[in-house]
Specification:
Blueprint: E1 7-18, E2 21-32, E3 36-40, H1 47-55, E4 62-67, E5 70-71, E6 86-89, H2 100-106, H3 119-122, H4 134-146, E7 152-155, H5 164-181, E8 184-189, H6 195-198, E9 201-206, E10 209-215, E11 223-226, E12 232-235
Parallel strand pairs: 3-8, 3-9, 6-7, 7-8
Antiparallel strand pairs: 1-2, 1-4, 4-5, 9-10, 11-12
Helix pairs in contact: 4-5
């Protein structure tokens, strides 16, 4: 199989500038299909900006970002058009005026009760989302994420408000999604405490630049290479699914 054919994202000279300040500057980075990636970095490192660009929710200021061998389409105003097969989950995705039960129902989530068997979580179902704590919103966001069926799943601030058992439960669901459907998954977090156990490849950001790339504990990737001049190429094993051969 040609290495190029396994690429799902390719970034070259990618920059994002806000108010004359460069917040993201990546010389070269590649992502391969069917792999789980962890994006690690402190606040302000560029994690959220990178996920927004890769989801098509924002447009790069300079450079090249290709998804499935092509750049994102734009409208006549230059705004990136949404790609339904790419789903980004963060706190901004949820409609704050909705009720939790209505949101879950509208997203056709089956067996909702299994997510609220904990006594501290049962009360969430009847609340308005605007009245939820950050931890409760994060939990609700993850329910929506693991019940979605995108080709690419991006989750910002993964598990930062979860206890150990909650994180482990969702980790298993994401790994199963990746295994059964071949979903490419990108997760971001301020540290690698949880990401190293689910990710095949860890990409560390610092002040908008890639500082290093490492293998995660999850050994599903083949290898990665780091060349000179900050050219990073992450090479991963393509997931071959009998159910979905072109994920």
């Amino acid at each position: 199989m040609n290495q190029q054919s396994t690429l799902i994202y390719e970034l070259k000279g990618l920059k994002k500038i806000y108010n004359n300040e460069t917040v993201l500057n990546i010389r070269r980075l590649q992502f391969h299909r069917g792999t789980i990636y962890g994006i690690v970095g402190p606040i302000g490192s560029g994690k959220t900006t990178l996920l927004n660009l890769m989801s098509g929710h924002d447009k790069e200021s300079d450079g090249l970002l290709k998804y499935d061998m092509n750049q994102f389409k734009t409208n006549w105003l230059g705004k990136t058009l949404s790609t339904p097969e790419i789903q980004l989950f963060n706190s901004e995705k949820i409609n704050n005026n909705a009720k939790v039960s209505n949101l879950l129902s509208s997203n056709k989530i089956d067996n909702v009760s299994k997510y609220f068997n904990n006594s501290s979580l049962k009360l969430i179902q009847n609340k308005n989302i605007k009245n939820l704590s950050k931890g409760e919103v994060a939990y609700l966001n993850m329910i929506l994420a693991v019940n979605s069926d995108p080709r690419v799943l991006l989750i910002d601030d993964y598990a930062i408000n979860f206890d150990k058992n909650m994180e482990l439960d969702f980790r298993k669901k994401l790994i199963l999604m990746n295994k059964n459907l071949g979903t490419t998954i990108l997760l971001s977090a301020p540290n690698d405490q949880n990401l190293k156990f689910i990710s095949s490849v860890l990409i560390y950001l610092d002040n908008g630049h890639i500082s290093k790339i490492r293998s995660g504990v999850a050994k599903t990737s083949k290898k990665y290479t780091k060349s000179s001049n900050d050219k990073k190429s992450v090479k991963s094993k393509r997931f071959n699914s009998k159910k979905r051969t072109n994920r």
